[in-house]
Amino acid sequence: MNQQASGAEAGIASELWQVLARHRLRIGAALVLLLAAKLATVAVPLLLKRIIDTFQGGPAGDFPHTLPLTLPVLLLAGYAVLRFSSTLFNELRDLLFSRVTLDAVSGYAQRTFAHLHALGPHFHARRSLGSLLPDIDRGTSGIAFLLGVALFTIVPTLVEIGLVLAIMLRAYEAGFAAIILLTFLVYAGFTLVFTARRVVYQRRVNKLDSNAKGRLADSLINYDTVKYFTNEALEAQRFAAIMDEWRAAGAGNQRALFALHVGQSALIGVGVAAIMLLAGQAVLRGRMSVGDLVLINAYALQVCLPLNALGFVYREARDAWVNAERLFALLRERPETVDPPDAPPLRAGPGEVVFERVGFAYEAGRPTLVDVDLRIAPGTTLAVVGRSGSGKSTLARLLLRYYAPGSGRILVDGQDIGRAQAGSVRRAIGVVPQETALFNDSIGNNIAYGRPGCSREEVIAACRAAHVHDMIAALPDGYDTQVGERGAKLSGGERQRIAIARTILKDPCILVFDEATSALDAVSEHAITEELNRLARDRTTLVVAHRLSTIVHAHQIVVMDRGQILEQGSHAELLARAGAYARLWSLQQRIEKESAQQQQPLR
Question: pTM value?
Fold first, then answer.
């Protein structure tokens, strides 16, 4: 476990170093400004000592009345310039380096966004969207903090301490430098030990924070279900339980932070007191002037205050490192399917689809498909029916390359899709799913998503073909009507018609209807089925169906059970065999007849 953690930390350090290497010229200029700012900062106490000694008349304390009046003015002006220069150089440094951090944050955000889309359904099924978002947000912020801290807080603080120690060793007794060095070493050791203890609390706080946001998002997404069962109080209770854990972890984290802060402040206080006692004795014995006392006091504060800041920064850097760990762990997730090296794009053709002895299992030991052989001739429709869990929808997922077959292969126009670019395979396929999820955008933009860059006229033409134009035109805002989160402002039938228009606009050679009408009422199902049949005309179509009445016109019907094909043929051929399909057809017809009789009004 420790080796894994060390490897992960080395990986993060390597990634950050690569970011810095890409901006080495800008960083070099920023370091020059940093050094100039530190030199100005260290020079300020030296000039202040000179000013005080000048006004006092030197170490003897006699003010030199013969001294030119211009000298104090120049010294004071120089003091002001040095103060301003330190601030100016720091601001210029930050301005120059901001491009590095902005590029890094933007780059990692874009990389993570693209990576999440590259990951397959298995990953997204086990990760909550609500917990992913805070991990990404904290991770990118942590990267920006680490980049800035490494160069512009830790390094300059160490440089400043080194300069001060050199000046103290050269101009004053070794005891002053020894106290500063000892304070620094004890402070650093204390900070390392206590910060390492606190990291455990920070990781737990982050995990619970992500869990809380995940629970919040999941509950709000399922708002209707909560209302159906009047479980608002239960949801509040579950969320409160997570927040109680978060509060307890946060309290432990704060106690560790309190111990760290108090210990750091105590060490700095002891160090400053020791330095001032030694300096005070030297002044009383006449070995140093008041200017020297002021200089030593300024340097003591100049070292100890950055030292305190260094402790704060190190603590925050550890927190940022923990946050970055989650983001880099996310980026290390591997997709279920990856394009082979130099994979060619799928060549467009008539759209023949062949499954050759395809086997697949979502979990080891539980096969979903077993040696499935299927052929969908170009321009024909093949429907797949069967009980839930028989493997119907898995055929569609494998054709879309969401997963790779465990055995066998799938061919489109004679090309193994496992050896082709996944994007090109999906571009050749249009999908109308059971539940159409729309973006929280306008109707027009949702339909145009089928072919980015298309014109409004092409969108309208697709809607006319899908017989949905009149419905959209009747809305107050027409094609600019906002559909709400996941299309919640539209009915199920309206969402399905928009999905059909979007697929028409895409104009694929292969279609997949994955139980596209099973969630609709009988009237809507009939109307949508007619639209789907028109869309499927002269296209190769795979239909995953639940209601047999919607697929009676399919050229071929496949009956599946436990991942295997039981029967295959046309509607008439399968009825004539009096097998599994005929029994299923008879059962559905009887259920539909009884349902129709129950709905007739009483006379």
Answer: 0.68
